[in-house]
Model the fold of this input.
Amino acid sequence: MPRLNTEDFSLFDLCPRRRLYELTYAPYRVPVSKAMADALHAGLSAADAGIAAEKLMSTAANPGLELPPENLYSACFHHSKLIEVITQYVLELEPLLSLPGPIRLPWGEFQPLSFLTNSGDLLRVVICDRWDEQREQMERFSWRTAIDTAITGRPMTIIAIVIGRAEKGFRSSPWTIGYRHPSNKTIRIKKKGAEEFGSRWDRVYREQTDEKPLDWLTTMQEDGAFENHAFMFTEPPPVNAAEVLRQIDKMAADIGAGVHNQTRSACFKLRPCPFTPACLTAQSPAQLGWREHPQSPLDHKLDPLLSCS
Done:
């Protein structure tokens, strides 16, 4: 019987074959968004923001992050400090987070990837470049929300952290950038009212200062810098929970049966799937030079000639 988690279903819905490949093959480089999500999960699990920073730098060292080669180490370090302060922010809001235990279901065992808060709600954190009403609806409706809430019957609090677009590997947002006074060296993050930072103020990234995560967050709060950069809302279990649970049962059965059909509409959605060259040429990722994870969770080998034509 399968042992599945939230991400298994989310990836399977996106593309069964991509889920299979991602479980089997180690990436050449890890997308920064995934590396940050993994680092955040590690930091929240340990209730230690420093663990999040260490996790991101570990991923940057091996296998590496998808960042421009110019100033690569500085960009990786920059993102480690960014995820550190985000993790500290979440821990200040919810200091008593815990990981829910696995849930036994007729088809197998399910592990939610959201956290449990002290109030008994679920908690999920979304890190994104920008935020609008459409993105909020997408997160409310997503499988990452629907599966955990439907199976547990608990509402989910979603915290959205807006970090801005990356420019040459660096982010420009209050989570990363402040201004240092030319004389007393104090740090400010956002101007108040008509007050301007003079030309003598130094624009600095947090990693260029001695500011600890909590110190930085305190300044952000004093300057009102969370506005438009942090959002929080709660989503109840789906009103059609019975239908959602039936869909989950069907997906679990397909995963257990080894279904790995390609979902063509997902191949070039937003950004090309990294495994598209394999699918387009009817070769396995191994034939194109991908190396398998040392301990792949799959108990069967892939057909090296999966064809998508």
